[in-house]
Design brief:
Elements lengths: L2 H4 L11 H9 L12 E6 L3 H4 L6 H7 L7 H20 L4 E6 L8 H6 L24 E5 L10 H7 L4 E7 L4 H11 L3 E5 L3 E2 L3 H14 L2 E3 L1 H17 L1
Parallel strand pairs: 1-2, 1-4, 2-3, 4-5, 4-6, 5-7
Helix pairs in contact: 5-10
């Protein structure tokens, strides 16, 4: 059985109730938007600070390495990026963009430092990209200081220059920087796809609730394998034109 056959078609199952789903269905939410013709991949905050230096259970990773780590859950998601998403973008020479948390300076304290003090004291090695999905020559590196990859960055300019109409959003956290980026991408009228097994968060509940909400309002949700298949079909159609 393939990985795609083993993933639930409802990744929020067990958290979102049938009644919850019926309410959104009755209101007409959650229709698929599909993909366009010129995709780009955003791999958000795929740094050791979000997964730890090696796969470990959450509480061990937080205690022994970085307070911002999501532990082995993050490693599992990044392996889906490595195995399914990066290959299809590499073989089609489509843009790969790495929005990442810039090292924090004293002037970055702001409200985030007040809410999450530990974020200000991450050591230098925590800001490095995780080796299994490290950027290649020609990829776009995009430092950011706020949740959305659009806020205060040149992301929109890069996308316009490359005539991108579809964003595949991976990385972390599902409820934070992924969600903030997805909402802004939707607001700019991009097609948005979130591979549910290639994004991650600190708790399964928060992860699933945010996947459900994004699926109803802002993005199409599928597995990384399903997204890869969609993109392969897009490349095949373009090759036949």
């Amino acid at each position: 059985m393939t990985h795609a056959e083993t993933v639930s078609p409802r990744p929020w199952a067990g958290v979102i109730t049938d009644d919850d789903e019926r309410r959104y269905e009755a209101a007409g939410f959650g229709q698929p938007a599909g993909i366009g013709k010129r995709p780009a991949l955003l791999i958000i905050d795929a740094q050791y600070r979000t997964v730890g230096m090696e796969p470990k259970p959450f509480f061990q990773s937080v205690a022994e390495e970085f307070s911002t780590s999501c532990g082995e859950t993050g490693w599992n998601a990044l392996r889906r990026v490595q195995e399914s998403l990066l290959p299809v973008f590499r073989r089609n020479d489509w843009p790969v963009i790495y929005p990442y948390v810039a090292p924090k300076e004293s002037f970055d304290q702001g409200r985030l430092g007040a809410k999450v003090p530990g974020i200000m004291t991450i050591p230098e090695e925590g800001y490095k990209f995780v080796d299994i999905i490290a950027p290649a020559a020609g990829d776009i590196l995009l430092p950011k200081r706020h949740p959305s990859a659009f806020f205060g960055t040149a992301l929109l300019s890069y996308l316009i220059e490359r005539q991108v109409d579809t964003l595949v959003v991976a990385g972390c956290t599902t409820s934070g920087c992924v969600r903030g980026t997805v909402v802004d991408a939707f607001s700019y009228n991009f097609h948005v796809v979130v591979p549910h097994d290639a994004v991650y968060d600190r708790t399964e509940t928060v992860h699933k609730v945010n996947l459900f909400d994004m699926a109803q309002k802002y993005a199409d949700i599928a597995s990384a394998d399903q997204v890869e298949a969609q993109l392969d079909e897009l490349a095949r159609r373009k090759g036949n034109n």
